[in-house]
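Contributing new records

If you add data, match the layout below exactly. Sequence lines come first and carry their own label; structure lines follow with theirs. Keep one chain per record. Anything else will be rejected by the validation script.
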Amino acid sequence: MNVEYTGRKFEITPAIRKDVESGLAKIRKILRDKFETKVTLAVEKRRHKAEITITPRNGPLVALAQANDMTIAVNEALDHLEKQAVKYKTKWRTKTRHNHSIPSPKKWNGEASQASLTTAVGLEESTAVEVVVHKFPAVAKTTEVHLVRTEDAVSIRPLTLEEAIKEAHFRDRDVFVFRDPKGKVMVLHRTRDGKMELIEAP
């Protein structure tokens, strides 16, 4: 298992390595994929911080945690990473299923048209080509819009782009709004293929 450790004001002990590697083994079973791992362990003002980044095929997953003890912080980060891995695997499976499903050519909008007429177009009967004419509904179905207010997708303090990406991963948000150090409003958006897209507000 390829794991890169970085300690900032903290000495990485064999016990911590064992905890990290046993947690990563569980995540590897979930993803069924090889990935590189970076583990940064730091102590700041008596707070123990653990940051674990893994890089599977479709984009990185980042988990941050802090506690009074490094073992607790590492285990919390691994738990969060495990939840992200399950979500990542579910999204990947759903996307794969959608890509492999081939819609029927005789269907419109997912439903077979009950009122379809078969007519022929051509000058003579021998050269006529069959054409299927569909009758579309007079009123298209619309779905109700449900609005839910959230503050979890917005950063109050200014962030650099790197900090915003980590924060979006940590909060597990597909859309994350923040201001850069110059005060400009930026929006991070996770696309369906797992990549992060940056939108600069005018």
